User: Fold NAD(P) transhydrogenase subunit beta from Halostreptopolyspora alba.
Amino acid sequence: MSAVDVLIRLVYLAAAGCFVIGLHLMNSPGTARHGNRVSGLGMAAAVAATLLLLIDSGTVTTTGWIVLGLGILIGAAAGLYSARSVRMTAMPQLVSLFNAVGGGAAALVGAHDFLRFGGAGGELTVAATVAVALDILIGAVAFAGSLVASGKLQGWVPSQPMLLPGRAVLNTALAAIAVAAAGLLVAGRVEVTALTVLVVASLVLGVLTVLAIGGADMPVVVSLLNACTGVAVAMAGFVIENTMLIIAGALVGASGGILTKLMADAMNRSLTAILIGGFGTGDDARGRTTGEERGIQTIEADDAAIRLAYANRVIVVPGYGLAAARAQNELHELAEVLRSGGVRVDYAIHPVAGRMPGHMNVLLAEAKVPYAQMREMGEINPEFPRADVALVIGANDVTNPAARRPGTAISGMPILDVDRAESVLVIKRSMGHGYAGIDNELYTDARTRMFLADAKSALETLTASVKTLVR
Assistant:
């Protein structure tokens, strides 16, 4: 083994250590940013070591280096532009889009090596051909499914479940065709035809599966597809015999799988039920702007400001409506005004608040909200009975008391115990329902008052009114 090989192996080992440390640091909002930097450093080192490996091998032509350089420049520029220009509310769909890129790239690596070396009958071993088949199948499903998920999150594809007639039979047939084509690849039969069938069947399967899943389940789907991409990357590592890809893919697959399980538990929905689809109707912004006929009590800004200003403790419950209105800075300003008047303010964060894990934490951190004020559901729920006011902003299903009784679409789903506060103020743009497609029983509670307005304008108005009371 040459000195260059030893150096590359050591760099790969150090990069893998950075990935593990980075994942550990991401367990806490306070250290997540540092963890992201550590992981990024590890990836940069791994890329540099891989380039050194290519230089040492001498197999890349001048044209190849030009293409490789252009690819690196274009990819880096696209990533930097996306990171700086995409709004925080659009981060989930960006993550899904990047996940599609990873799955597609892994599938392309497998297909390229299969075509180049001729499958099990050529230079590839049977084990390598199995890895190729799994790589293409899983990577293509992750690629197509992630694109559809990103479209649903962006609003380009309807968030409602799209249930095609006979979809169960069709999906089963597609899965069977994909597995059969993979088997033919491994057996060395009709290889090019089998490869084409495998790619097409996997792509269509990914599209149809995600189309049938409602917007409420998209965070879990994105996490699952991320795990699939990790597995596909690991398979690609086996194909090209690159330990770094194997390690990185395995870490992504394992962490994505664990996160998927945790999120499914937070929604009290099995992964099977999520993949079957058909749940929820999507966030309904067209609902009535008044709710008097349903016994809902509204409140004006001045009265709401009085309740907040003269409270001892306020627990804020942010939801996707806050993110959609980009009102995190206005919320933080209101909280700081209340705190200057002696009011204790905490933020109750549901595990699936927003549209991806940690979405709400990052959104609030962007507005300079201290991490210490962001409280997880299990920690903050026992404190709601001691709160004078629970201020709900754009959160729907995660506050619905209907989850506590059987027979509803969200039965058993862990929720924030907002209705146990002394009083509840809900800022919502309309009386439309949430993703689960059912009315929120919190809104008809005798202690609840509805402030029907866009979150941004409502918080600005409340802040102005509270300022006149705390001076």
In short: The chain has a mean pLDDT of 87.
